[in-house]
Structure formats: structure tokens, C-alpha cells
Amino acid sequence: MTDIEKKQRYRILAIHDNQAIHEDFTKIRNYPEALEKGAGVADRIMYCLFGLFMAGSSYHIRRY
User: Fold this and answer.
1) Is the pLDDT of residue 62 over 60?
2) How many helical (H) and strand (E) elements, i.e. helices and strands, does the chain have?
3) Are 59 and 17 in contact (CB under 8 A)?
4) In which band, very low, low, confident or very high, does the pLDDT at 64 lie, cut at 50, 70 and 90?
5) For tag attachment on the chain, is the N or C end more exposed, with fewer CB atoms within 10 Å?
6) pTM value?
């Protein structure tokens, strides 16, 4: 694999990362809507933690 091919491959991975991270943060941004629909307290907490966890894990895993 040449250097150019490697760069292209990493660029594609980076674009994918950004989309995944963006989707995760959109979930967190939609959090108030979930509250308005009357989710229980436990659901609210889990929803927020899950959103943050997903955002963090997708950010870290694909960096290596």
C-alpha cells in the first residue's frame, strides 16, 4: 500500500468517524425532546449516559 493509498484510507475513516460522532451528539441534543415525551427518571439518566458513552467510545475506538 503506497502512502497515497494510506492517506485516502485514513481520510475515508475520518469522514466515517465524524458522521458517527455527529449522530451520537445529535442523540444528546434530542435529549430535551425525550423529556417532553414523559420518559421516566431512570430512562432520562440512561439515555444521557448512553449518548455520552456512545459518543466517547466511537471517538476513541476508531482513533487507533
Assistant:
1) no
2) 3, 0
3) yes
4) very low
5) C
6) 0.26
